[in-house]
Design a protein that fits this description.
The chain is α/β, with parallel strands linked by helices and 207 residues long. The protein has a single domain, classed as Maf protein (Alpha-Beta Complex). The chain has five helices and six strands; from the N terminus they run βαβαβαβββαα. Strand 1, helix 1 and strand 2 form a beta-alpha-beta unit. It is globular, with a radius of gyration of 18 Å. The C terminus is likely disordered.
């Protein structure tokens, strides 16, 4: 891709940092909507993470001709039938905070034993190119919901999402999380597809 610039469909500084750190490894620079003067808050009405990521990307497309990268992600708990799912960020209401969401989830699992607390983080990433081409990928990270918050890194549900070795996402160093997280896995697939496009352009193929 000739213009190695992305506008990320987010103003969440934590998401932006994770996306930027991974994409810069293949030579891409990522800007937030705020960086380029875009103020947009599309209603996420999709029934899946992928639908919501695409809704956000298409909303931003109306305001810029630059390539757009959009992520929608969340946590799915088996005992709760996949909830919070697409409602992850507002699980405890319209004015949700990380702490209020965590508290609601822990309360919903009160008395549930560890083997039944299995969960996964899921990420859907959409790239919308200036010519209308759409590139998508999905990433997952399996774990379980712990009984208490642990760790000071990360954001969202990270302090109660535990890996099999009994360590929470919030206890991981950034470089470790960025190698195993749901978003990292989805972004690596995107990077692979982008590098393939770059090679095709270098060879003179019209894509």
């Amino acid at each position: 891709m000739k213009d190695k610039i992305f506008i990320a469909a987010t103003n969440n500084k934590n998401k932006l940092r994770e996306i930027s750190e991974i994409l810069k490894k293949i030579g891409y620079t990522t800007f937030s909507m705020k960086d380029v003067g875009i103020d947009c808050h599309p209603e996420e009405t999709g029934n899946s993470f992928l639908e919501n990521a695409l809704i956000k990307a298409k909303a931003i497309r109306k305001m810029t001709d630059l390539p757009i990268i959009s992520d929608d992600s969340g946590i799915s708990v088996d005992y709760l039938g996949g909830m919070p799912g697409v409602h992850t960020s507002r699980y405890s209401g319209e004015n949700s905070t990380d702490d209020s969401n965590i508290l609601k989830l822990l309360n919903a699992l009160e008395g549930v034993e560890k083997p039944k607390r299995t969960a996964r983080f899921i990420s859907a990433v959409v790239v919308l190119m200036p010519d209308g081409q759409i590139i998508t990928s999905m990433g997952r990270c399996e774990g379980y919901i712990g009984f208490e918050k642990r760790g000071n890194n990360g954001f969202g549900y990270d302090p109660i999402f535990y890996l099999s070795r009994n360590i929470s996402f919030a206890e991981l160093e950034d470089y470790v999380k960025n190698s195993i997280s749901h978003r990292a896995r989805a972004l690596r697939k995107i990077c692979f597809k982008l590098k393939k496009i770059d090679r095709m352009e270098l060879l003179g193929y019209d894509i």
